[in-house]
Design a protein that fits this description.
This protein is α/β, with parallel strands linked by helices and about 300 residues long. Helix content is about 45%, strand content about 15%. An eight-stranded parallel β-sheet has the order 6-5-4-3-2-1-8-7. α2 packs parallel to α4. The longest helix is centred in the first third of the chain and has 22 residues. The chain starts with 6 loop residues before the first strand and ends in an 8-residue tail after the last helix. The model has no long low-confidence stretch (mean pLDDT about 90).
Length: about 300
């Protein structure tokens, strides 16, 4: 039986320019195939995005982002859900909308609620901006949760330019900064903090060295917060993982070495963070289940003769 935590958070990008799978699922047919594949793995959370926030891409307008949901994801998801109404995801699952624009989140949720009364929602807001938008949404709908991400861009419109605002300071100062950053966020959300996920947001407002350091120290960092604090952790297909195994890749499309490294990392984190509330954001669900299985197969060293 799969434990309640960690949770699988499957990723579906309908962007034409995503760093990992840009354009692959930006059509009705391919989106439908990917949705079927992801839901066959039984994710607790499905994370859907229609704009790439990679720093080399230009931001898209609110109208264009809404249009991608309206033209691609919404018809596929609604049709799939209405044909599979008893699928566990539509009875107790959570749909995460990956956008830094509150208007886009409200638009997508408004289109889906009449069709799926049991579905819960997450606003996966990569902006890291503390403003009243999230408070209003959390206050209005008790079935909505929120992901507070580490991004030092000063305004929502600057979210894609996060690498212009990387933290400056040494390794220990970086960890202290992260801790105070998230504590400030939890204090800000006050009565709603039980519905707040924290996301270190690997790759955002961080140098390559800071990403590597955070990977090493992640269990120690998370253990500095209460066990009941929920986290979203996503390193899937990130460029620093690709760079770490670049000599083993046959081509840019050879993801096997990257996913092997990814599986190993998740397995170690699962072992070192038992009892913590982790939602693992992955493009390939097999990585999540492989890591979960590997963690359960590792014997406690106290039992070794």
């Amino acid at each position: 039986m799969t434990p309640s935590w960690p949770k699988l958070m499957g990723v579906l990008n309908i962007t034409p320019d995503s760093f990992s799978d840009g354009g692959s699922f930006a059509s009705l047919e391919n989106c439908s195939l990917k949705l079927s594949e992801l839901l066959s793995f039984g994710p607790a959370i499905l994370d859907v995005g229609a704009e790439s926030t990679a720093p080399f891409n230009s931001p898209c307008s609110e109208e264009k982002e809404k249009g991608r949901f309206l033209d691609i994801f919404l018809p596929v998801f609604i049709e799939w859900g209405e044909k599979n109404q008893k699928h566990p995801f539509f009875l107790k699952g959570t749909l995460s909308i990956d956008t830094y624009k509150p208007e886009v989140f409200i638009f997508v949720v408004g289109k889906l609620k009449p069709h799926f009364p049991y579905l819960k929602f997450i606003w996966n807001d990569v902006s890291g901006v503390l403003d009243k938008e999230a408070l209003r949404i959390l206050e209005k709908d008790p079935k909505v949760s929120y992901v507070f991400c580490h991004n030092l861009a000063p305004m929502r419109k600057d979210s894609s330019h996060h690498m212009n605002y990387a933290f400056e300071g040494g390794e220990q100062a970086f960890l202290e900064h992260l801790k105070s950053y998230f504590q400030e966020g939890l204090d800000y959300f006050g009565e709603f903090k039980e519905r707040i996920f924290l996301d270190p947001c690997f790759g955002f407002s961080k140098t390559l060295q800071q990403n590597d350091f955070l990977i090493q120290k992640l269990p120690l960092f998370i253990r500095s917060f209460p066990r009941e604090t929920p986290w979203v952790i996503g390193v899937s297909k990130k460029s620093f993982l690709q760079n770490a195994v670049r000599e083993y890749r046959q081509s840019p499309k050879d993801w096997a070495p990257v996913e092997c490294l990814h599986t190993g990392l998740l397995s170690l984190w699962f072992e070192r963070l038992k009892g913590y509330r982790l939602a693992m954001r992955v493009h390939n669900p097999s990585v999540f289940y492989g890591a979960l299985k590997a963690q359960t197969m590792v014997s406690d060293e106290s039992t070794i003769l």
